[in-house]
Write the structure tokens for this entry.
Amino acid sequence: MASLNVGNLGEYLREQRRTAQLSLRQLAEAAGVSNPYLSQIERGLRKPSAEVLQQVAKALRISAETLYVRAGILDEKERDELETRAVILADPSINERQKQVLLQIYDSFRKENAAEAAEAAEAADTAGTADATGATAGPTPS
């Protein structure tokens, strides 16, 4: 069987399992998957679903989002956003209203920065188009 491109997911899972001092059989049992299936995931022969990754992450007591990124299900930016939201929501030192306000501020900053990035990209595209058509930036000679 050819190895699938799962972003070193199998190697990472094996490392996490060993760090947790779990055998393959123990992790498979804790995650509710078969021992051969987990072995195939670790060897890069199978690409697990998000649900299986979530079960494995729970059994290993690690972030499911990290496994999603390694498996190519989620990109790094999405993971960072989800983890930021999770940290805010899990903070016991602030109340629910404060959590919602923080999330609203966070969202507004993200939207503002995305709009600025889009404007900058558009300006760069416009400048690149002007250069490609032979427009000059300086004064024209007389």
About this structure: The chain has a mean pLDDT of 85. The chain has seven helices and no strands.
